[in-house]
Amino acid sequence: MKTKVIIILFSLFSIISYGQAKDNTSLAEIKKTLTLFAKSLQTKNINNTVELIHPKYFTITPKDKMLQMLNFTYDNPYLKTNVQRFIIHSVEKPEKIGNEYFAVTDYSFKMNLKIDWAQLPVAEEMKKQIRQSITKQFGDENVQHVQKGDYYIINTKMKACAISGDNKNWKLIILEKNQKPQLMKILPKKIVDKV
Questions:
Q1: What is the bridge-based pairing of β-strands 171-175 and 143-146?
Q2: pLDDT digits over 79-111, tens only?
Q3: How far apart (Å, rounded) are the C-alpha atoms in residues 46 and 69?
Q4: Can you give the pTM of this predicted structure?
Q5: 58-62, 132-136, 165-169, 187-191: least confidently modelled range
Q6: For position 26, which CATH number holds?
């Protein structure tokens, strides 16, 4: 009887340990994917950045349009972007919903954005529109205009959803409040409610 109890306890301990190890591996892979995403943006490797986005996202924003937007933002001679800091704050334990795993992540970044105003027509009006656009996107409290040097510092916290069919290979969808109606079309409500 004593031997059976020891075997049962050992088996139970092994199952629990295996489950925790699997979760830790998943969390490490999600962090790795998110870090690679940030590094791809930092190095302006736009094609690699797009490859890390989950294909579901391209049903609401076509892949070629996403490439265009990212190239315009990160590989534009009139816009100089420099991602200076990227921090992953948390990664939820993956949850299986339907036939896929989902994990919401919280991260933040600091980016400098400098615009070559001399190359743009109607610079003063453009400055006003761009400032409004940046503050609308990131929030007024997260955007600082540096007069000397005429550039912006953007500090913001964001969320992304990591998605996997096998709990090993992960792709991302950035979760933004202003995109909630579109995200409802491609993500479970339980995930969108976390935005």
A1: unpaired
A2: 788 888 899 999 999 999 999 999 999 999 898
A3: 10
A4: 0.79
A5: 132-136
A6: 3.10.450.50
